[in-house]
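User: Structure please.
Assistant: Input sequence and predicted structure:
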Amino acid sequence: MHPTAVLFQSSVTELEALNFDGVVDYFTDDVEEYYKVMKGGFLNAWFAPGELKFVFDEVYELKKLENAVVILAHSDGTSKNGTPWHNEYMFIVEADASGKKINKFTEFTDSGFFKSFMAEEAKLNAGGA
C-alpha cells in the first residue's frame, strides 16, 4: 500500500479506538485542530471504543502528487443506542514532504445517511422508540 495510505490507516486505527490524541499524532498542526474539533465530539458521544470499523476498499495513487492518495472506504458499527452505522467515504489525503505527517485531508461522505443516523440518535436520546 502507498506510504501515505499506510500513514492514514494508522490514524484510522487510533480513531477506531477513539484515541484522538493518537489520531492527531499523524497530522500537521493545522489539520490536527480540525480533526480534534470535528471528529472527537460526536464519535465519543455515539460509539464505544472499537465499535466503529473502517475498511479501505481501494487506494489510488495520484501521479502528479508524490505523497497523495485517494482512498475509497466504508465504515460499519453500532451506536451506544443500538443504531446501525454504515457509511461510505472518499478521502483525498496528502502527506507533507517528509511523508511522516498528513498535511491535507479532504473527506466526502454520505451526508444523507449521516442525517438519518443523527435523527435516529436524537429520537432515541429523547426516549422515543
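The first strand starts at residue 53 and ends at 61.
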